[in-house]
Amino acid sequence: MFAERMSRLGTETAFEVLAKARKLEAQGRNIVHLEIGEPDFDTPDNIRKAAVDAIWAGDTHYGPSAGMMPAREAICRYFEKDRGLKYTPDQIILTPGGKPIIFLPILALVDHGDEVIYPNPGYPIYESAINFAGGKAVPLAYTEERDFRFDIAELEAKINPNTRMVIINSPQNPTGGVLEDSDLKRIAELAVENDCIVLSDEVYSKIIYEGEHRTIATYPGMKDRTILLDAHSKTYAMTGWRLGYAAMSTEIAERFAKLNTNVYSHATSFVQTAGIEALEGPQDKVVEMVAIFKERRDAIVDGLNDIKGFSCLRPKGAFYVFPNITETGMKSQEIADKILNEAGVACLSGTCFGSFGEGFIRFSYANSLENINEALSRIKKLMEG
Ligand SMILES: Cc1ncc(COP(=O)(O)O)c(C=O)c1O
User: Fold this and answer.
1) Looking at domain 4-42+284-384, which of 3.20.20.210, 3.90.1150.10, 3.40.980.10, 3.40.630.10 is its CATH number?
2) Is the pLDDT of residue 385 over 90?
3) What number is the average pLDDT over the span 106-123?
4) Are 71 and 273 in contact (CB under 8 A)?
5) pTM for the full predicted model
6) Is the C-beta atom of 119 inside 6 A of ligand 1?
7) Record: fold of 45-280
8) What is the pLDDT of residue 171?
9) pLDDT by residue (tens digit) across 344-356?
10) pLDDT of 352
11) Ligand 1: centre distance to CA 98 (Å)
12) How far apart are CA 138 and CA 116, in angstroms?
């Protein structure tokens, strides 16, 4: 009944777990939600006001597929200030959320049989998009022993002339791992040697607790072969607004804009205008949010390490923890289900992020300290009696 390609499309199970949790809530159960990856803060007032003003000013019409010129110019200014990279507006694309910057470039660049190296455990949409495009998904393990970075030797062994693209994500979902400069340098060298594109997912670029975020696009030979993906969603608590942006070579941007034209035309006009305010207005709310995330990170890491059978690294970025649960003797899915059904805490099995996520579960700490502490005490009671 459906096209064959649909059998190759994956999904994001966080939404399924949310539905399961909501069903339990409908039956009267109290659930602490640590499954969904979205800031629990409201979008800052200046951004909300900018959107309302933009509606009244008439930003309610069709615009260019790549994004409105003032928005693209603002993103050029932002990338220059924030990442030290000079782009021109014809190298910038805006999209409804960051997600299309995974799916559409893969459709544009990956042919049948082309290899794409991607993080595993990793954001599930990478594998889904590669398979859907007919590419060969080549997982690269981000391991606990390496602080949730990958082993360069493994990348060296996997990259070859058939590799069309390498996807990296730092800070990372689901582990909170952050790649080091030495990792980026070596990936860049290998990408140049093997003539491949790097899709660098930097949607958590501002949610980082140690050091500064650096993009691979700044390494020699990388600017034109990197698709730099960022979004307003996590940085400005704007998940529901759907606004993402990316920088890339002019050639790729042209094809990307054509895909935009075919799928959704462009990101919502007044949302793009509000997005300029987000990037160029006061940043104090972002700083505040990151400080609160850091406090929660420490609470959840300490709490999980105090539960029998759990051991949890202290991630350097994003708002997730990825504790190792192998000592409990249970499988990831089994323990995630048990924690939801018996303790009323929604979390995700590590396997939602690929097969190498077995042995782990993911908690999002984008929730209040009070709820995090409640979740920890429920899980401790469940595991220790
Ligand atoms: C690593 C990563 N990339 C991209 C996205 C997509 O973000 P958006 O909501 O802007 O589409 C997410 C969202 O969870 C993510 O975790």
Assistant:
1) 3.90.1150.10
2) no
3) 97
4) yes
5) 0.97
6) no
7) Aspartate Aminotransferase; domain 2 (3.40.640)
8) 98
9) 999 999 999 999 9
10) 95
11) 6
12) 6
Strand 197-201 with 226-231, pairing: parallel
Is the CB of 207 inside a 6 Å radius of any atom of ligand 1? no
User: Does 96 contact ligand 1 (Cβ within 6 A)?
Assistant: no
Query: CA 213 to CA 290: how far, in whole Å?
Result: 14
Q: What is the pLDDT of residues 288-346, one digit of tens each?
A: 999 999 999 999 999 999 999 999 999 999 999 999 999 999 999 999 999 999 999 99
- Measured between alpha carbons, how far is 43 from 238 in angstroms, rounded to an integer? 6
| 171 within ligand 1 shell (Cβ under 6 A) | no
Q: How many Cα atoms are found within 13 Å in the side-chain-facing hemisphere of 39? A: 28
- Ligand 1 mutation target, pool 13, 123, 271, most atoms within 8 A of CB: 123
Whether residue 339 contacts residue 305, with contact meaning beta carbons closer than 8 Å, is answered with no
Tokens of 25: 């809530």
Q: Where in the chain is the domain with CATH 3.40.640.10?
A: 45-280
Sign of CA dihedral 154, 157, 160, 163: negative
239 CB within 6 A, ligand 1: yes
- Judged against a pLDDT cut of 90, whether residue 211 lies above it is answered with no
